[in-house]
């Protein structure tokens, strides 16, 4: 399996975490989506990461669609560790929270942080490159506080974010927090419950791949790879 | 079943079309999401329409999540008319296109049209109300041409947008086009294939509910309810 991704695209990170839970180690192909390369647009006309490609199968584009596809083709094999529960009502809650983080938190927080602080370093001026926009960053740093609080509230009320078992909801939330954490933009002191929940996830062997990522000339925050942050 | 919706929210219209294909007539509850009413936020913390509520079941929020839930609980009963195909690869294509229209076309076209031309009429100034923003409308009217062309290209290459059978992809595309059509913002003359495909959908009895909708003081375009537009 090939995973077309960017190391700091939060949706790509979500799929890396999901694949790791399945024990799948994909070949990683880095994409810079702002270059709009024709061979990548052929895999995903929407021009967005992540996309998975398996031999003799059509490409599967988009975080939510990949998560459903993996569950449909391999979910039962995970047994008790299945990432999408069996009951329709429980699946609703997992999907609601997965969309909350992949769609809402992305639009309000991580899209801004990653674009302004990372992608723009690599974009040419006509692709939207340049210095980060301070107003946009300020909004993202305000918005993350409310998402962190919601995560803490869920983690305190339940064992995992969507219920008794770890699910796509936890991995989506952790993927988004992980890019903000690399950049030092998570106010961990503001929510002990969210912090304890994230520490549990971060200690999983499946998280190691993300913790090894780095950006040349932009080292990770002190908390990023520290399991006792 | 209750459907919390707005008559001109394209995601709500998508679910009305889906429910009609199942033969379900929900009780409609109109929501003005910009009012952020606490009883509605309790049903969907994201504060967005649509949401379905069945007796003795948790609420199901969001167009994509409702579509999956209905397929999981009632899809098999549709037999050959099932709106999400049985094979994983075919499901990927239906979900990709459903997301294309519900997410991408929404952000680029219908969110702008509906917000600027309809919702703002009902919003107070502190809720974002006021006259439509001409620049935003111009962008939406440019963007719709490319979505219409994509629909035409798919409709010509296949029987329905995602393959041999009608699916969530067709109903999502039709729902978004229908609000633009009410407003007279679909350049039908630019794509005969898209027009012929839409005429097929519009003639279905399941479409009638939408064609009866109207906004006081803002009549529908001439093409809207005309089956031979």
From TrEMBL, chains A, B:
Domain GST N-terminal: 1-78
Top-level taxon: Bacteria
CDD domains (UniProt xref): GST_N_family
Assigned keywords, A-Z: Transferase
GO molecular function list: glutathione transferase activity
Gene Ontology annotations of biological process type: glutathione metabolic process
Name by which UniProt lists this protein: Glutathione S-transferase
Keyword match Transferase: yes
Matches recorded under InterPro entries: Glutathione-S-Trfase_C-like (IPR010987), Glutathione-S-Trfase_C_sf (IPR036282), Glutathione_S-Trfase (IPR040079), Glutathione_S-Trfase_N (IPR004045), GST_C (IPR004046), Thioredoxin-like_sf (IPR036249)
Subunit structure: Homodimer.
Database matches in SUPFAM superfamilies: GST C-terminal domain-like, Thioredoxin-like
Keyword Transferase: yes
UniProt source species: Aquabacter spiritensis
Domain GST C-terminal: 87-220
